[in-house]
Design a protein that fits this description.
Elements lengths: L3 E5 L2 H14 L5 E6 L5 H12 L13 E4 L6 E5 L5 H5 L4 H5 L7 E5 L11 E8 L5 E8 L7 H8 L1
Parallel strand pairs: 2-5, 2-6, 4-5
Antiparallel strand pairs: 1-7, 3-4, 6-7
Helix pairs in contact: 1-2, 1-5
Bound molecules: adenosine-5'-diphosphate (ADP) and magnesium ion (MG).
The site of adenosine-5'-diphosphate has 17 residues, from helix 1 and helix 2.
C-alpha cells in the first residue's frame, strides 16, 4: 500500500481514525505528524491512546515536550516539537524512544515532526490538511513499513 487519503468530517472522525491506529499498530511504530497548528494532531493522538486502551486523558505536550502513558496495550510516547529548533531536537536523542532499548518499546507519536533533523528508518507519516467547511483530510504514508491489512477496511466502515 502506498499513501492513503482519508476524509475526516469532524473531530470525532479524527478521534476514530486514531483509535483504529491505536488498535492495529505494533510495538515500535512511529507516527510522524506534520500539519499546521489546529489541524487535529493532538486529537488524532488522543484517539490512538483510546485505541491502546489508555483511559487517562491525553493532553497536548506542547509545554511538557513529552508525555508518557503506560496503562494501555503498549506504552504511548507523545511528543510535541513545536517549541524547538532542529539542533535542540537532535540533542533529545529521540531514537531512544523508537529503539525501545532504554525505554519500554511502544508507540511513538510526534507532533511537528518537520522539526526533526533525522527520522527513524521506518515510520508512518500522517499529514492533516483542511477540506471544505472546516473538515480535515488525513494523508497517511508508510515509509519502509506496511499498514495492517485491515486498516483500509476499518477506515471505510468506521469513519
Ligand atoms: N476532522 C475535523 N474536523 C473539524 N475539526 C476538527 C477535526 N479534527 C480535529 N478538529 C478540531 O481541531 C481543533 C484543533 O485540534 P488539535 O488536535 O488540538 O490540533 P493540533 O494538535 O494539530 O494543533 C480542535 O478543536 C479539534 O476538535
Ligand atoms: Mg497539538
Amino acid at each position: 500500500m502506498t499513501n492513503m487519503k482519508i476524509f475526516l468530517a469532524d473531530a470525532e472522525a479524527t478521534l476514530r481514525l486514531g483509535m483504529i491506529l491505536g488498535e492495529l499498530l505494533t510495538k515500535g511504530s512511529v507516527i510522524l505528524l506534520e500539519a499546521d497548528l489546529g489541524a487535529g494532531k493532538t486529537t488524532l493522538v488522543q484517539g490512538i491512546g483510546k485505541g491502546l486502551g489508555i483511559t487517562e486523558s491525553i493532553v497536548s505536550p506542547t509545554f511538557t515536550l513529552i508525555n508518557e502513558y503506560t496503562e494501555g496495550r503498549l506504552p504511548l510516547y507523545h511528543l510535541d516539537l513545536y517549541r524547538l529548533e532542529p539542533n535542540e531536537v537532535a540533542a533529545l536523542n529521540l531514537e531512544t524512544y523508537w529503539e525501545g532499548v532504554e525505554v519500554m518499546p511502544g508507540i511513538v507519536a510526534i507532533e511537528w515532526a518537520e522539526r526533526m533533523p533525522y527520522k527513524p528508518d521506518s515510520y508512518l507519516s500522517v499529514g492533516l490538511g483542511y477540506g471544505d467547511d472546516c473538515t480535515r483530510i488525513a494523508e497517511i504514508t508508510p515509509f519502509n513499513c506496511v499498514l495492517n491489512q485491515d486498516f483500509a477496511a476499518r477506515c471505510t466502515s468506521y469513519l
